Amino acid sequence: MRIINEVMLDYCDVLLKPKRSTMESRKDVDLTRTFSFYHSPKKWTGIPIMTANMASCGTFSTARVLSKHKIITTFHKYYTISEYKEFFSSFSNPDYVSYTLGIRDRDIEQLKVMIDNKLMDNFSFVCIDVPNGYLEKFLETIRLVRELLPEHIIIAGNVVSNEMTEEIILNGADIVKVGIGPGSACTTRKMTGVGYPQLSAVIECSDAAHGISNPKGHCGLIIADGGQVHPSCIAKAYCGGADFNMCGSLFSGFEESGGETVEMNGKLFKEYYGSSSNKAMLVNYGQKDSHRASEGRYTLIPHKGSMEYFLSDLFGSLRSTGTYIGARKLKEFAKRATFIRVNRQLNESNAKYEINENN
Ligand code: 5GP
Contact 287/178 with Cβ under 8 angstroms? Predict the structure, then answer.
């Protein structure tokens, strides 16, 4: 047994110190980034935010909205080949959609059918997603997917430590997905006791990924996945070194999100449930395996209206963070950031994020 005594932080444990700046307006802050990758020869330009690959936000309807803003939709694992064929007959924007698969044999079989049907040409990204990225089978799957798709940008996770971040990149992934337990619909910490404070995980894993580069100087990248309850959490993740942010609940509850709409006492709600919740197991597999406990929760989010309002709030907040810390570009957030440790109670980010009432 060993105890790590170092202080580990979540987003709500810190604030950002304002810095002197020569900027005149929030408009001066550029939120787009262009990335090259460790393995994939592609280049990508956009706003480095993506939806979680969950039923409530990794959907076709979300992709139609977010791709216009150069944000990526990571589809959930449960679309069929024929649903993909129909969707891609009227959608073509590969840089802003990601296919998702797990590490079971049937995931690889479906990927092969997708490749044979040329459907993977519609995606720049492919995401290999498991709750626990510390399994040997996960690394084997990354190597196999890299062989099958040598040019795609491969995302793989989830992990929370430096040594596995390096291992994942060296085994064929371009981007490592970081986070175990921070998700708003996740009960892993409660059920298993396993987890890692998310901001510290982002700082540790980004340092590891950015420390590995190929002969052209292109380094590994990371995604901060889950636990962003406000736009400020997204800004803090960039300041901690995240290249991308992946969010579930922030992109759920909208007209364009997935999940059933439920009416209660005259008010509208939308479903939001964890991918490992009992509800997800029932919807996707028709039953809950007897050897698995649910590690996700089912919630109802008050209906938030159209996603477009949220996006302008989000971009405005990120630009404002840039203005306060003197960063003209998203790329400069980490360089300009000084975190201040605060008492959680003093930090606004403990309150639940609500879209402006006047929206
Ligand atoms: P959120 O943005 O809602 O805080 O977190 C979204 C992330 O939570 C997802 O991208 C995924 O990593 C994680 N997640 C989604 N469903 C579950 C679940 O049922 N159990 C666990 N442990 N994590 C989940």
Answer: no
